[in-house]
Amino acid sequence: MKQSDQAVAIPVPTTSIPVAAVPLLSLAAFGSGISLRVTDPLLPQLATEFSVSLGDASNVITMFAIAYGLAQLFFGPLGDRYGKYFIVACGTLACALTTLLCAFAPGFVPLLIARLLAGTTAASVIPLSMAWIGDVIPYQDRQPVLARFLIGQILGLSAGVLLGGLAADAHNWRLPFFLIAAVFLVVGAALFSLNRRLPEAARRLHRAEGPAVRRMIVEFKQILMLPWARSVLLTVFLEGAFLYGAFAFIASHEHRTFGLSMTTAGALIMLFGGGGFVFALGSRILVRRMGEVGLSRWGGIFLGGSLFLIGGAPAWWWAIPGCFMAGLGFYMLHNTLQINATQMAPERRGAAVSAFASSFFLGQSVGVAIAGALVEPIGTGKVLMIGALGVLLVALRFSHRLRLKAQPA
């Protein structure tokens, strides 16, 4: 490849980065997390209002996830060329617009189209934020910083489920989208303001030259040529498929099986975020004591065991420890995958992390689609148990690969 086609790294002193830079990215991730999960508790209401099955209603999740996954392939190289922080700011404001389209959707098909657009714009936020952090934070310090950044997403996922549950019980599925749009608007304006105060090198951490389409093809081709990159991408695809194929129906399972209100079911799922929050706060200690191998192995055990517990529990209150431990296990596993994603192709980090996020959300879309087709014939409990077994096997396989990778040749 010619030098002009490559992304040339520019060193950035971390002391010159404004203190608010990462927290603002975390707030953008908060909005993205709410947008992603707000429709989970709304599925029964959407099914009733639009006269569709629960499985068909889950397409509001699938459409978002498909668009989110595919759009990564566009935003990664775009961020490398024009500046990751700047593209995140643009994408956050675009999220405000597409979220409003969801709020004003006059029917089920227009809502699906609006969710497709919302997933497309939201694709610019978390992966490019992770890539930007990967550029400015040294590898040895990166995992705790990424964990703290993900507090925004964790809280967003939890708040999204609770907000959706409150809206479902109030029989007003449109209101959450107005609130989410307001969050995106405020955070997007703040990101633009801070981007102007970043050092020049931190605004464009890589200089990418040459035709955009050609560079995009070449970058992703080179990433896929790396054996470890292929392993990480396959793992996160399967993680997304098995986990979120089950996770999307936890609220509906608690509602259908135990008669809980959607607000209560949403509050239970907030404990998933609580487990993630505990990991974020204790990540430095956990990383030091367990290492990547231990985090991925035990994360998978906690996550798989918790999903199995929720799906097979004889009483609703088993979901309290189940959701909490599922969140802790997920972030132990997923954060380990993320740290590997930021380093699997450092010279084209934007494209690499975008490929990672694309694989994760395409996996989610496949998982939710399959689970949506199975949920009526076999029930929500068995869907959760299938997801539990799948994610456990995926985690154990990745932990084994990490151990082999760490051994001297």
Shape assignment: globular
The proportion of strand residues reads: under 5%
What would CATH call the homologous superfamily?
MFS general substrate transporter like domains
Number of separate strands: 2
Strand arrangement within the widest β-sheet reads 1-2
Give start-end ranges of low-pLDDT stretches: 1-11
pLDDT averaged over residues: 85
By CATH, the architecture is named: Up-down Bundle
Percent of residues in helices comes to: over 70%
Number of domains: 1
Name of the CATH class: Mainly Alpha
Reported by name, the CATH topology is Growth Hormone, Chain: A
Total DSSP helices: 17
Give the topology string: H per helix, E per strand: EHHHHHHHHHHEHHHHHHH
The computed structural class is mainly alpha
- Based on CA atoms alone, the radius of gyration comes out at 20 Å
For the biggest sheet, the summary is: 2 strands, antiparallel
- C-alpha termini separation: 29 Å
What is shown here, in short?
The protein has 409 residues and is an all-alpha fold. It has helices at 21-37, 43-49, 54-57, 59-82, 84-103, 108-122, 126-136, 139-169, 175-195, 200-203, 212-224, 227-247, 250-258, 262-312, 319-343, 349-378, 380-406; strands at residues 7-9, 206-208. Helix content is 81%, strand content 1%.
